[in-house]
Amino acid sequence: MAALTRLLRSAATSGSTARISLSTLASEPKTGFPAGLAARLAPAPTRKERDERNVQWVFLGCPGVGKGTYASRLSQLLGVPHIATGDLVREELASTGPLSQKLVDIVNQGKLVSDEIIVELLTKRLSKGEEKGESGFILDGFPRTVRQAEILEGVMDIDLVVNLKLREDVLVEKCLGRRICSECGKNFNLARINVEGQNGQPGMYMPPLLPPSGCMTKLITRADDTEEVVKERLRIYNDMSLPVEEFYRRQGRLLEFDLPGGIPESWPKLLQVLSLEEHHEDKQLAAA
Ligand code: ADP
């Protein structure tokens, strides 16, 4: 990880994306996912590397799709940190550092922060984790541009990229329903999505994710979750981040996952396609 943080930093500042020797790596990924995809996930880490580290996964998806929710649940299940670059940006905004002023307008207009700044924030976060002995990660919200994907590609092996998908009208409603408890920091969603099936497509129901009564009076809305800004973020996603999906699709590393509904319906199906149901049951047994 030390090498990673050094390389990330130098790649972002020098523009170099020199690749480490990926082609020498063996074929089996660390954690289960569908055999077809596993076979196409080249290159995977060597046995030695696998034994020494945890999963290194990326979550892609439009604003509001639920990347944070599912990435955070999986990170708990797999015992790896969930690193969301949006959270890193919001922490920076909440600080009084010099970067904060620079970022506020960019974020509140729904624009992307520069690749250099975002790589710098991610590098800092990885260095801190390294000091604490963290290994592996689930990245959420990074990479968001092809340049960021190339920088990441140049410095480390990504085992799997999960692409979460939902129809656009639902995404907007979900973003507008998002709330955060200003005290405990947990995320909730007040939107109750109930879309009728059309033209042979099934309907979709997503129950709200309501806060406990203690959080109810402390809920806040993100400044960038207004209808206008959400639509701009979706436009920018289509412009800048769809090519990132294509980047990983071409490499055979992209696992497409159409969310079938809310968490109760989607979570077990996601575990199933990741071949993690057993892992989940083991954890539940251990916790019992
Ligand atoms: P979203 O709900 O749109 O997925 P995030 O919480 O991931 O939101 O990010 C919030 C904001 O932080 C983004 O709109 C963008 O301004 C900034 N940001 C987060 N990650 C990146 C990134 N990888 N590159 C550039 N900007 C980013």
Describe the protein.
The chain has 288 residues and is of the alpha/beta class. The protein is built from 13 helices and ten strands. It has helices spanning 2-14, 35-40, 47-52, 67-78, 85-94, 98-108, 115-131, 146-155, 168-177, 213-216, 227-251, 263-273, 277-287, and strands at residues 56-60, 82-84, 137-140, 160-165, 178-181, 187-189, 193-195, 204-206, 219-220, 254-258. The strands form three sheets. It has a five-stranded parallel beta sheet. Strand 7 and strand 8 (204-206) form a beta hairpin. Helix 1 (2-14) packs antiparallel against helix 7, helix 1 packs across helix 8 and helix 5 (85-94) packs across helix 6. It is globular and about 45 Å long. The two termini are 34 Å apart. Mean pLDDT is 84; it is low at 15-44.
Helical content class: 40-55%
Side by side, the strands of the main sheet go 2-3-1-4-10
- Anisotropy-based shape: globular
Distance between the termini: 34 Å
Bound molecules: adenosine-5'-diphosphate
Major sheet size, sense and barrel closure: 5 strands, parallel
Give the integer mean of the pLDDT values: 84
| Continuous helix count | 13
Rg of Cα set = 19 Å
Instruction: Show unreliable segments.
Output: 15-44
Q: Which structural class matches the secondary elements?
A: alpha/beta
- DSSP strand (E) fraction? 5-15%
Give the H and E element order: HHHEHEHHHEHEHEEEEHEHEHH
Tally of strands: 10
